[in-house]
Design brief:
Largest sheet: 7 strands, mixed
Number of strands: 15
Helix content: 25-40%
Number of domains: 3
GO biological process, one term: gamma-aminobutyric acid catabolic process
Strand content: 5-15%
Pfam family, one: Aminotran_3
Distance between the termini: 52 Å
Shape: globular
Bound molecules: pyridoxal-5'-phosphate
Radius of gyration: 23 Å
Structural class: alpha/beta
InterPro entries: 4NH2But_aminotransferase_euk, Aminotrans_3, Aminotrans_3_PPA_site, PyrdxlP-dep_Trfase, PyrdxlP-dep_Trfase_major, PyrdxlP-dep_Trfase_small
CATH class of the largest domain: Alpha Beta
Strand order of the largest sheet: 4-10-9-8-7-5-6
CATH superfamily of the largest domain: Type I PLP-dependent aspartate aminotransferase-like (Major domain)
Family: Belongs to the class-III pyridoxal-phosphate-dependent aminotransferase family.
GO molecular function: 4-aminobutyrate:2-oxoglutarate transaminase activity; pyridoxal phosphate binding
Oligomer: single chain
């Protein structure tokens, strides 16, 4: 057997073992716990970082990893250290490092063809593109949305959605898809002037993060360092509720705060000089500090967008694909009508936006277009991820493990109230965070107790474990955190 065939053989054997209960390990041959051999970075890592630093900016480097040695929930470095990873490549690894099911998909002839014959999907889609979409990306489409436009990254997905929103809005204003552009529109578009380049906007919220490309960056409001020196659109920013946690204990105050924000959102929709074509919102503001709001707030936004005939875009780039204990976080809200568009990336390993209304397809070809328009290889990978999520019932696992982890953190918060403040994410799977007065020190110390964990906003410790994170991993995490809090 060739080495690849051998690996596929092992992979298919491992993939065939489906544990019956969530308590059984999904990866029985995962390390039993973190392995610490040296300080991090150890000598081999230091050498490798120095080498890399000569040709690539390493100033944002967190740790140098060896992905061939990483497995399941554990990330390995170059010095023999193996850490429990609850950061997971900025919340983007769904079902574990070197997952056997994914390895099987990755080494299939279908995948090889998709990689080496990458199609320009808008012009030359491959014969089975519809099947790949239907058995993958669209199989998990949010309720009410049955079409997709695929893209490359979270920022790209959002920008594509914004463009769809603007084209939809102008088409409405013009009176329908059949009405052609005027000569003035055509000529003014070429000089970046209205009406061809219309004075419209996308409304986003304080501390939102929607990406770093030009359009998406204008809707990002989390940190100045992302935005400095970059020209931006003159688009409105509504206040995102600053809620008190736990949400249910402060229900009345939070409801008042949410109403204040809804009122201000409506005022901006009505009065902003560049009227919004859409409102974009994250179900849980992630990069901006893990800020939550209640389903009522989001229902209120849906109602406002309907009332003012603009679109409601839900950015599920970070919340999507199971982490909150639902496949899509907005399922927690119980909306009567679905969002107009839902954007996705990260754990999907592909990207794009879902929509249901065919009017969101522009009236002419080539208006929403680029060379690749997505990537069948990444779509095949997402299909395998979905199969793995279904096989191991991972959305349910995340809900159950998340509750267990949250309860453990509540106990830690009682014991170490100065270390765990504003614990949040109850009932939201493993999408949990808290504020720490010494956040950066906690993140750094976590490595010395065998845990890789990230932060969000200025003070939050954010947990973003993979969907295969189980109760025994939660126990290890809680033990590690207690060691840090005691130190
Ligand atoms: C909610 C949200 N939207 C968009 C993005 C941008 O995604 P990308 O970095 O893939 O462009 C991110 C990235 O963290 C995100 O969290």
């Amino acid at each position: 057997m060739s080495p690849i065939a051998l690996r596929r053989h092992y992979a298919s054997a491992a993939a065939a073992v489906a544990p019956e209960a969530t308590e059984q390990p999904f990866f029985p041959d995962e390390p039993a716990g973190p392995i610490l051999k040296t300080e991090i970075p150890g000598p081999q890592s230091v050498k490798a970082i120095e080498k890399l630093g000569k040709v690539f900016d390493t100033r944002s480097l967190n740790m140098m990893a060896n992905y061939q040695r990483s497995y399941g929930n554990y990330i390995a470095d170059l010095d023999g250290n193996v850490l429990l990873d609850v950061y997971a490549q900025i919340a983007s690894i769904p079902v574990g490092y070197n997952n056997p099911t994914l390895l099987l998909a990755a080494t299939s002839p279908e995948m090889a063809s998709a990689i080496i014959n990458r199609p320009a999907l808008g012009n030359f889609p491959q014969h089975d593109w519809a099947d790949i979409l239907e058995s993958g990306i669209l199989k998990v489409a949010p309720k009410g949305l049955n079409q997709v436009f695929t893209g490359q990254s979270g920022s790209d997905a959002n920008e594509l959605a914004y463009k769809a929103a603007f084209m939809w809005k102008r088409q409405h204003q013009r009176g329908g898809a059949h009405i052609d552009f005027t000569d003035h529109e055509i000529s003014s578009s070429m000089t970046n002037q209205s009406p061809g380049a219309p004075e419209l906007s996308i409304l986003s919220f304080t501390s939102a993060f929607h990406g770093r490309l030009f359009g998406s960056l204008s809707t990002t409001r989390s940190k100045a360092i992302h935005k400095l020196d970059i020209p931006a659109f003159d688009w409105p920013q509504a206040p995102f509720p600053v809620c008190k946690y736990p949400l249910d204990q402060y229900a009345a105050e939070n409801a008042a705060e949410e109403q204040r924000c809804l009122d201000e959102t409506e005022r901006l929709i009505k009065e902003w000089h560049n009227p919004p074509a859409a409102v974009v919102v994250e179900p849980i503001q992630s990069e901006g500090g893990d800020n939550h709001a209640s389903p009522n707030f989001f229902k209120g936004l849906r109602a406002l967008t309907k009332k003012h005939d603009i679109l409601f875009i839900v950015d599920e780039v970070q919340t999507g694909v199971g982490a909150t204990g639902k496949f899509w976080a907005h399922e927690h809200w119980g909306l009567e009508t679905p969002p107009d568009m839902v954007t996705f990336s990260k754990k999907a390993q592909t990207a794009g936006y879902y929509f249901g209304n065919s009017e969101l397809r522009p009236n002419k070809p080539y208006r929403q277009f680029n060379t690749w328009m997505g990537d069948p290889a990444r779509a095949i990978l997402f299909r395998a991820i979905i199969q793995e999520i279904e096989r191991l019932n991972l959305v349910e696992n995340t809900a159950v493990t998340g509750q267990y982890l949250y309860e453990g953190l509540e106990r830690l918060a009682q014991r170490y109230p100065s270390e765990v403040k504003n614990l949040r994410g109850k009932g939201q799977g493993t999408f949990i965070a808290w504020d720490s007065p010494r956040r950066d020190e906690v993140l750094k110390k976590a490595k010395s107790v065998g845990v890789n964990v990230g932060g969000s906003g200025a003070t939050a410790v954010r947990l973003r474990p993979m969907l295969i994170f189980q109760k025994h991993h939660a126990d290890l995490l809680l033990e590690g955190l207690e060691k840090i809090f005691k130190s």
